[in-house]
Amino acid sequence: xxxxxxxxxxxxxxxxxxxxxxxxxVEDEPALLRALRINLRARGYDVVTAxxxxxxxxxxxRRPPDVVLLDLGLPDIDGGAVIRELRGWSAVPVIxxxxxxxxxxxxxxxxxxxxxxxTKPFDMEELLARLRAALRRGDQSPASTTFSIGAYExxxxxxxxxxxxxxxxxxxxxxxxxxxxxxxxxxxxxxxxGQLVSSDRLLGxxxxxxxxxSTHYLRFHMAGLRRKLEDDPHRPRHLLTEPGMGYRYxx
Length: 251
Description:
By secondary structure, the protein is α/β, with parallel strands linked by helices. Helix content is 38%, strand content 20%. The chain has nine helices and twelve strands.
């Protein structure tokens, strides 16, 4: 009996790798965050944590998790907005942990893209069972997605940008290189094609809290992206400015 229980508690390894599954816990309640971290690490999970939505999104981009445990009531961004942003570029399973027990909150989170919803307070063993079930659903790596801007094809999964119309006399296609900041900005915009992405959101996700008024950072780096990607940077067709509001990727 003990051996069977030990097998059940053991987390499934990442597909194709002998690695512990990485769990991103997004929770701003210190006691609960500590309890989750201790319990998951004791069972062999690789645990990373965040206490705010912007930090969670940055961590998910830096080290993609295999599953996310997400509180809805975060201090900066509502958990539903975090889910919608994740769904723009990742299929990672999201299990919501929330004190909101109303059916409207559950429906809203599931419609935003959550895979499961657990109401606080919850039984730790039940949560662990739901976590194992989410991990068994298959390979959670994000699908390769390609986009076109001007003469370039962008592959956000491979992190490559290749010129599809080679310059005269060039030996093969040219590969374009972006700075890490340019990549982060571009990925956020590509994750919401045709939609306005506010300046506040871009500044919060790329530079973090406290930079909401630093719009000159955005202007500088967006100008750099246009110089590199647009056929005519002065009359861009794909990386558009919405004055006073934000930016938009237009396919």
